Amino acid sequence: MKICVVALGKIGLPLAVQFATKGHEVIGTDINEKVVDLVNAGVEPFPGEAELDMKLKQVVESGNLRATTDTTAAVAESEAVVVVVPLVVDEQYQPDFGPMEAATRAIARGLKPGTLVCYETTTPLGATRNRYQPLLEEISGLKVGRDFYLCHSPERVFTGRVFADLRKYPKLVGGVDEASAEKAVEFYQAVLDFDPRPDLARPNGVWDLGSAEAAELAKLAETTYRDVNIGLANQFARFAEKLGVDIYQVIEAANSQPFSHIHTPGPAVGGHCIPVYPRFYLWGDPEATIVRAARELNEGQPAYMVGLLDGLLGGLEDKRVVVLGASYRGGGVKETAFSGVFPMVAALREAGAEALVHDPLYADEELTALGLAPYHYGEPVEGAILHTDHAEYRDVSAAQFPGIKAIVDGRNVTKPELWTGVTRKVFGRG
């Protein structure tokens, strides 16, 4: 097949490479000329994706993958189009459909009869049928089901391990009609490989969910579940503090029973997915009180951590406080999308504190560009909040923070013996 992948970001480029490794001719498109040039040179535009560097070089050298900024021309010579354009949201989680609609218009101008168009970007419910389909039909003059095929197939991968996740998880598809679903199943069976999953009720592979809406909802459901579960864990942790109970011991005990899967509490929920997709879900189901309550509780966690430190220090006015970790996720992940560091710093400043931030993955100028004041070990502070579970912080000690009086550990990772003489509070431990 000839396949066009629209948007060569952290998901789109690995997808394009995956398709090319299966022997298909792939054209990747992106509005960023620098990304296009790097891909055509066989150089990954962003580091950190396992196997991407080697695989990209191979498929570019073999001629199976090339890149261009001309989406319309690429679509015109393709049999299948996979769309992975980011749906950017603002601070209130309102999406900007502009980039996606611009890409859809470019696709429509090159669309020819018989082409399959698959949207993989996570989207509010109904967008594939009610927003993208009309644009495609109006501009192309073609009709879905008669002239071309349309489906939603949500990406379900983690950056850093995309190739492994593509093999591990079933590929969910939902067509806007039966013919589109059949084409989508046939397409993904030809471009993906799947690991055996004896734990699943049916074989791992391409799963047709029956409609585009079902496929959209499946992605929103799995991410919203995580947000609600984390919200529940955070609620338990707050209550455990009042009871003088260790919530981590409680969760371990509860999860020893096979029907309990309580997640780990923490100081914030960040990233492109978990804070955002429950809001997408709520647009379609505004009466979902459980979803709304969990989202609001999780959004309040950074301020709650600041409140804990305020209580330990007897106030934060004119105090120097360091937040440990700017990234929303530990494990060496360098990403600040919707990171809790931002509302945490805002809450500290509102309380009158001087808020500083340390993260081993970020240079001073990078933190400054994010609106954060850099901190270095050895500089005096009176308080600290551990926000990110970086491996480095598991062995951090009071000696590295001259004058420190209290620390709030939001991740339950610090070692008590390294904080002698300092008031140490672990979130969820009474």
Automatic annotation (TrEMBL):
Give the keywords, sorted. Answer: NAD, Oxidoreductase
Q: In what residue span(s) does the UDP-glucose/GDP-mannose dehydrogenase C-terminal domain sit?
A: 322-416
Q: Which domain of life is it from?
A: Bacteria
Q: Name one GO molecular function term.
A: NAD binding
Transport: is it a keyword of this entry?
no
The record's Gene Ontology biological-process terms are:
polysaccharide biosynthetic process
A Pfam family this chain is assigned to? UDPG_MGDP_dh_C
SUPFAM superfamilies per record: 6-phosphogluconate dehydrogenase C-terminal domain-like (SSF48179), NAD(P)-binding Rossmann-fold domains (SSF51735), UDP-glucose/GDP-mannose dehydrogenase C-terminal domain (SSF52413)
Record family assignment: Belongs to the UDP-glucose/GDP-mannose dehydrogenase family.
The protein depicted here goes by the name UDP-N-acetyl-D-mannosaminuronate dehydrogenase
